[in-house]
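We close this part of the discussion by returning to an individual protein. Part of our work consisted of pairing the sequence of a single chain with a tokenised description of its backbone. No coordinates are needed to read the tokens, only the vocabulary itself. The amino acid sequence and the backbone structure tokens for this protein are reproduced below:
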Amino acid sequence: MLTHCGTMSIETDRREAQGGATLEGAVFEIVNRSQDAVLVEGTLYAAGAVVYTMTTDSEGRARTANNLLPYGTYQVREVNG
């Protein structure tokens, strides 16, 4: 599974910054929302734990590596942007 995230303008509903803003550098966390722990890159993460953090590029996009996340339920949340 490949996870994609990105930032968009709420006002224009487009992937473009307004004024002097930038879409680059927004930080997203992926949180384990499964009932059980998950194994990500050799580490076991309990339910509710942040399993991965990613930052958007100059186009406002971020992604995980292929097959990073095992089957389960996750939440992606923006923590800085």
